[in-house]
Design brief:
The protein has helices at about 1-20, 30-40, 200-205; strands spanning about 25-30, 45-50, 60-65, 70-75, 80-90, 95-100, 100-105, 115-120, 125-135, 140, 145, 150-160, 165-175, 185-195. It is of the alpha+beta class. It starts with a helix and ends in a 7-residue tail after the last helix.
Length: about 210
């Protein structure tokens, strides 16, 4: 019953936001296993993840060493069921990630061909929503969201000339019932790939929510 209540809240938010939203760019939805398969063939450039931080202490961003790609993690003291604005901007070789008042900038080496958003909710009564998504100032007309237990969603994005410059923005909402989940139990990821086969060509337009 609790899971249905949380699902209804997230669904209502999405319906309002997506209603009459013009579509821009190509988006498809993949499962988490499909994403892992795609990333084996794609050249992964960077990955930014947002997770619940420690209960005490200030929010922080940390830059981690990925396996052949740049990886950043935002450890944040999230407020349950509260939207935070985020943006991911690539220009002149510099990638800038903003969430709330936090800013992290680094050089991925080159711009991506395609982007992906992923979210995961491990526990019952928890959920993640990436919503109000815009790419280069135009609404995508799609979203990435999931409700636990052990559930995830992946949104793959293709657009014109992402490799030279792009700006991806939106809101992210982490929600749970009861005690706050651990950092690995409720999270989202923004990533970029370059090279390999296009996911849109490979998988077709598996699912579009407009």
């Amino acid at each position: 019953m609790k899971v249905r209540s949380l699902s209804q809240i997230l669904t209502a938010v999405l319906v309002i936001a997506l209603c009459n939203a013009p579509a821009w760019g190509d988006t498809i939805h993949l499962g988490e296993a499909q994403l892992a398969g795609m990333l084996e063939s794609e050249g992964r450039l960077f990955e930014v993840s947002g997770r619940l931080g420690e209960e005490e202490g200030a929010p922080e961003l940390e830059l981690l060493n990925g396996s052949g790609f740049l990886q950043a993690s935002a450890l944040f003291q999230w407020r349950c069921n509260h939207e935070e604005r985020f943006s991911l901007i690539y220009e002149n070789g510099l990638l800038e990630f903003r969430i709330g008042q936090l800013v992290l900038a680094f050089e991925p080496g080159s711009g991506p061909d395609e982007l992906y958003l992923a979210c995961h909710a491990e526990l019952e009564g928890s959920g993640v929503t990436l919503n109000d998504l815009e790419l280069n100032g135009s609404r995508l007309g799609d979203s990435c969201w999931t409700v636990g237990p052990d559930s995830g969603d992946v949104l793959w994005i293709s657009g014109p000339d992402l490799s030279s410059r792009f700006e991806l923005s939106g809101t992210v909402n982490l929600a749970w019932i009861g005690e706050a989940p651990g950092p690995e139990d409720l999270s989202f990821v923004l990533g970029g790939t370059r090279g390999g086969t296009s996911a849109v060509s490979d998988w077709g337009r598996l699912k579009r929510r407009f």
